[in-house]
Amino acid sequence: MSPQEEERRMFPSFVFPESFLADASTPDSGGEQKKAGRQRRRRKARQSSAAGESAGGDDAARKRKLSDEQAQFLEMSFREDRKLETPRKEKLAAELGLDTKQVAVWFQNRRARYKSKLIEEEFSKLRAAHDAVVVHNCHLEAELLRLKERLAETEEEQSKAMAAAARAGGGGSSPSSSSFSTVTHHAAMVEQFGMEDAGPDLTYMSEYAYNNYLMDLEGSGYLGGAYNQFS
DNA sequence: ACTAATCTAATCATGCCCCGCATGATTAGCGCATTAGT
């Protein structure tokens, strides 16, 4: 089995199954029954062992801590391959002076702990990625707010400026004095700023007044680079 | 198809140090675990 296949088997999906997210403290009734049965059997086993082998005969049942050297050796072996075939198990047991059963159990536990560590690491990574996305989203929303405020300010200034310009040049020129370019600019302004129904009708502004008005806007920074698009 | 070996997941038990953590050991598997050899 390839390492990838093995990984998939041990950790089949990076999307955690529902069972993983489910509340482990509320097992179903079948689980409760199984657990109760298990506990009964354990109690019984303990009682019989205490009754029959009290004179040190239960030594084998006691938990035997592996020596540092044994644990280190098993760890090295685990790093080489997380699966344990029979020949390897027997060889390890012989080399370390352990029971094959102990070696098998050690590998089982080591795999279980390796997997839970893997899940923990994956969870940390996902959480970090999630947090980063949340922060980025906040920045984007703040930026959007700033842009909306700036747009509103600009529109207000435009209205004021156009009203002032209309008052200054209003009635002084006839419709015939407005050039074609002025009309074109007006259309572009309407498209750019959507101010068709706000402010004066620039169609009837003299070209001179219109150019002064644009220069004023450009000079005060209201247009930004927008003026260049008109000329 | 049958069987033995092995697996995962959950849990218990124990040792180390003072209560919780690390780790060795046990158990079930319920549409009755899966896999590999015969």
Helix content: 55-70%
Structural class: mainly alpha
Task: Tell me the β content.
Answer: under 5%
Largest sheet: none
CATH topology type of the domain at 1-14 and 65-148: Arc Repressor Mutant, subunit A
The rounded distance between the terminal residues' Cα atoms is 71 Å
Provide a count of the helices. 8
Order of helices and strands: HHHHHHHH
Counted beta strands: 0
- Which runs of at least 5 residues are low in confidence (pLDDT < 50)? 1-38, 40-61, 171-208, 217-231
What CATH architecture of the domain at 1-14 and 65-148 would you give?
A: Orthogonal Bundle
What's the rounded overall pLDDT mean? 64
Shape: rod-shaped
User: Over all CA atoms, what is the radius of gyration?
Assistant: 40 Å
In CATH, the homologous superfamily of the domain at 1-14 and 65-148 goes by the name: Homeodomain-like
